[in-house]
Amino acid sequence: MTAELARECVRYAQMGWMRGTSGNLSVVLQRDPLRLAVTVSGVDKGEITADDSVIIDVDGNAVDSPKVPSAEAGLHARIAHVSGAGAVVHVHALATVVAAEHWPDGVVLKDLEMLKGFGRYDHEEVVIPVVRNSQDMLELGDAFEKGFDPKVPALLVARHGVYVWGEDLMQARHRLECLEWLLRFKVETRDIFTGRHS
C-alpha cells in the first residue's frame, strides 16, 4: 500500500500538481479503530519512496512511529471517517485554487459530459464546496463536515488546493483528474457567456 502511495505521488508530481514537497495522499488501512497510511511531511513528491509514509489515527497523529505525518493528516482522517472513503488525495492543481478564488461560495458545475467521470450525470447541477484556509485541521475538518454532501467527493480550500476521495487511490485519482478538467473549463470560460457565470 505504501508503494502505491509513492507511485501516485510521483504521477501527480509529473502532472505539476504536487510541486516541491506540497500535497499529500492517504489510504485507509482499517476502520475500527481508524488507521490510515499517509505521506510524511517535507518530502519531494517527485522523489518519494515507499518508506516515506506513516500510519496515523483518527486524529491525524502518528501511531508508534517517530515519522512526522503531513500537516494535513488530521483532515485526511476526518474526511475518511465522515465520508467512508478508502483513500484521500490532496494536491495544489492551479485550476482548483483559481476556481475557489472566483467562486468562494461554491463552484457550480452543470451540463458537462466530464461530470460522468466525477460520478455524476452530465445534466446534474453539482456544487463543489469551498472553505477558507486554516492551519488548524480541526477548524478545516469542522468546515468540511458542516458542508459535507455524500454525493460530492471533493472539497476546495481557498488559496490552498483540493481534496478528493474515493473507494481507493485509483477512483480518487480518476475523480480528481475529471474535477481538475471541469474546474479548468469553468475558469477559462467564465467570461465567454453573457452575464458571466455566477
Automatic annotation (TrEMBL):
Its EC number is 4.2.1.109. SMART domains: Aldolase_II. Binds 1 zinc ion per subunit. Keywords: Amino-acid biosynthesis, Lyase, Metal-binding, Methionine biosynthesis, Zinc. It catalyses: 5-(methylsulfanyl)-D-ribulose 1-phosphate = 5-methylsulfanyl-2,3-dioxopentyl phosphate + H2O. Gene3D superfamilies: Class II aldolase/adducin N-terminal domain (3.40.225.10). Transmembrane segments: none annotated. Residues 3-187 form the Class II aldolase/adducin N-terminal domain. GO terms for molecular function: methylthioribulose 1-phosphate dehydratase activity. Its cofactor is Zn(2+). It holds the Pfam family Aldolase_II. Zn(2+) binds at H90, H92. Pathway: Amino-acid biosynthesis; L-methionine biosynthesis via salvage pathway; L-methionine from S-methyl-5-thio-alpha-D-ribose 1-phosphate: step 2/6. Catalyzes the dehydration of methylthioribulose-1-phosphate (MTRu-1-P) into 2,3-diketo-5-methylthiopentyl-1-phosphate (DK-MTP-1-P). Belongs to the aldolase class II family. MtnB subfamily. This is Methylthioribulose-1-phosphate dehydratase.
